[in-house]
Amino acid sequence: MWDAGVFNGGATIALIAILHVYIAMFAVGTGIFLYAGERSARRRNDAGMLQYLRTHSKFFILVALVAGAISGVGIWFDIGLIAPEATGVLIRTFVWFWALEWIFFALEVVTALLYYYTWDRVRPKLHETIGLVYAVSAWMSLFLINGIISFMLTPGRWPETHSVWDGFWNPSAIPSLVMRTAVSVILAGLYALITSASVEDADLRSRLVRFSTSWMILGFAALPLGGAAWLAAIPPESRATLLSGANPASLFFLMSMAISFVMALFVWAGPYKKPSMVNTALAALLLVMGFAATGSSEWVREAVRKPFLIYGYLYSNNVYKQEAERLPENASILARAKWAGERSVAPDRELEAGEAIFRSACMQCHAVNGYNGIVPLVAHWSEEYIEHQLSHLDELEAAMPPFHATADEKRALAKWLYAISRPGGDAP
Q: Is 315 helix (H, G, I), strand (E, B) or coil?
């Protein structure tokens, strides 16, 4: 098991994935932005805008090809450690879709570099074509990955048929694609505001700001349509969680919508109507708001799957639902755990066995102390109450998978949790 300390597995995945999603969707939207911007500037013979796009494309390849690629590798490293079963299912089920995505990503890298390094070195029409190839390749990467990611929340008929097409064309695939494309367009406009705010020519800056914000308004218009369709497509239990208004997922969902609405209103009434008011500080503020809205949305997508990694198929503790249904209530965790240091609960090693059980069954979601730490959750509970809770976890908390363990294992885990949650307590 990988012990990430104060950050549990879910937190490390979230930190890397949110950053990567923000960069990746920027790369998709900016590819379309650069192609459309260059095409428009050449039709109008706008030399100032062409020079801006040339500068912006350098910023683009540094962010997309360096930060995007590194964070993408980080996600694979992280999910392989935290959720090996789910990662294996995604690879085995969608192996040819991943292969296609890697081809498109390789094409993205080549065309992005060509696009930047061939400014004024090839015919304008050829340069536009290189930009178009990048834009299409980037969107196809988004299209393929979106189908796989949305599968994790809405696998549709796949658990019964195991057909890759049922998994890919799942109920939330199209709504998610609309939302992600809309967000990509918005992010392209946000990043463009950052670079256009520093342009010295006031007339050119106003044209660039108007062009950037028009993209954002287009994305904001499409976002509610995709969001409403996505909400209708997700499982009823997940939808009820979001609409209950009394849990973190619901609060983050509302926060994402509120930030998006405020941004849309502000962009339309401010930079779009009055391009001269834009400066770097204002553009940076909007970028931070965009990051907060995107991060909240990605967190919500992960949260509403609980207690599953793949909804209705694989629990967050890497136990398959069918396997859990076949297990007797008193099935031993330690006997099934592949890497546990303790294979049973010995009378003189209850605390060590309790820690081994925690590492095998709980650490995928809970740290000892830190993000989603277990100590603050049980700090005021008695040992008997902890043991009682372990027998009813999935009944008491909808986000928890069923906990199959022997009576001795539940007692050992309760004893260990009680010991570490006392003042000065620590793992053995």
A: strand
